[in-house]
Amino acid sequence: MRKIFFLLVLIFLFTISFFIQVPKSSSDELSDITKQIEDLTTSLNQSLKATAPLESQLTSLKKQIIGIKNRLTFIENDIAVKEKNISDGYKNLAKQQLILNRAIRDFYIKSYYNSPIWVFFSSSSVTDITQILAYQRATTNQNKAIITNIALTTQDLEAKKKNLENEKKQLSSLEASLDEQSAKLDEVVSGAKKYQAGLSSKIAELSAKQQEILGQRLASLNIPRSAGTAAPACIDDRDKDPGFAERLAFFTYGVPNRTGLNQYGAKSRAATQGHEDILRAYYEGISFETRSNINIKVQGYGEMPLETYLLGIYEMPEDWPMEALKAQVIAARSYALAYTNNGAGEICTTQSCQVYKQPNKTGQWKTAVEQTAGKVMVNGGQVIKAWYSSTHGGYVLSTSELPGWSATSWTKHVIDTTTGSAGSFSDLNNNAYDKDSPWFYCDWGSRSQYNKTAWLKSEEVADIVNVILLARADSGTKEKLYQTDKPHPFGGEVWNEERVKSELRARNITPYNSVSGLSVSVDFGGGKVNSVTVSGNAGSSSFSGSEFKDWFNLRAPANIQIVGPLYNIEQR
Question: Could you tell me the pTM of the whole model?
Fold first, then answer.
């Protein structure tokens, strides 16, 4: 086993020596970025290819180690039994030695008094002499049996003790060796994984322009962050006919920033919960304090008292339940104080901060502001930046789970349902606190020529799948795989559906002409799609949830997109 292990280590180190050194990017020019991505991806693919058989061997070795350790556990238990038996044997031997000592003493005494001469002169008849001599022989034989038994027992115990000591030494040596081997195996695997993760990170970092495009496309949807917006909700296309038969659509749960207060969730909770309990449901480790009414700077409006500023916040309809309004007021007040650093900075008036406009509100909203005057949420002695959005889609995420966000102590991961759990889409649809939001379950985007729906044809989805397969096979093709109904975002060439198929065939990969089925594997605890499985004329292929979503959003026509990590596929 040790020889196999060191051979694997040598193979791994030999492979690593061929990896290309990654140059640092010195330009944002597309050609440089593409070249660096290609080099990095080549290195990553080489590492993955070299590591795959290594991991297989390591997995096999680990299974052997587990089997050996199980056997050693059995041996350990057996040794414990043997130790007990030997200990009991020595205890019994001690008792027999006492019997032997008495027997030897009696033997010498009887030998003196029962000597043939003494028996002859002390006996009155031949019969007496015969009986005495017979008794003497019996006693002698019994003592010999006792002595022999003790000698054999002592010899057996000493032999067992010696064997046991050898077994314990071998066991200790084997356990130490196995621990060492396991540690080295883990070191090799973790080293390979760390190297690959580093390359993947660099590739993602150098794909900044692609991420920029994704960001621009997402912004083009004008997804409303707050429930108080006048922006139209997305349209549920499930019952709308796009004008073609076989079709697929991708429905997202909630809007992208699913952290902090869920406004539609707060509306539902307000039926049974007070505003403090509502806020505790969405923020971690908070307490409530009252702060003075300081002046803050509002972009385009100058300075004004904080409580006056709050009257112009248009983030929640004021005909909602009072406890929901109070929760929103406290979140908005806390956010404004944290964002401006207690009035030192300036706050914007759009969804990038929180929506402010004039005239000031009256009615229910004003009442909520007045009844919570100065009340803020505090964590660790500091007023929190209380993010919120209209609809979380049944989940609340900590900022550490959001791409590009830093971890914060006041945000948390919550399954935002009445049961506190979810095991299926049905559970979410029935039990999510924000299920009544118009943005809860949406397919985003549309095409006017298909009845303003986001339905896609089977061959269009097949093209997206082909794009992912080609990007996997040859990273150098990525910059030619944007959506075909618009010009290349940087003035390059975009490969259409047929060109993508041709490129796949040139690489001995069978392209999909149509897709007959799609399914998603979902982590309902985390609120995200783990994988997407596609079936069609080219067989079956699987992709990670994020990989499929990103390439879908880069390739899908018009403005059709998957806007979050949790989505479902509708087929008609």
Answer: 0.66
